[in-house]
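Contributing new records

If you add data, match the layout below exactly. Sequence lines come first and carry their own label; structure lines follow with theirs. Keep one chain per record. Anything else will be rejected by the validation script.
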Amino acid sequence: MSIREIFNDQARHCDGLGSPFMARLMALVGERLQHGDPV
């Protein structure tokens, strides 16, 4: 599983737990993360 997939998976879990802010934040990180970026 890639780091992008991990952030997107986390976004789905946050959404499922009723945390829309964190869901959106995790989705944005997953979308914008570039190869070589520090995590």
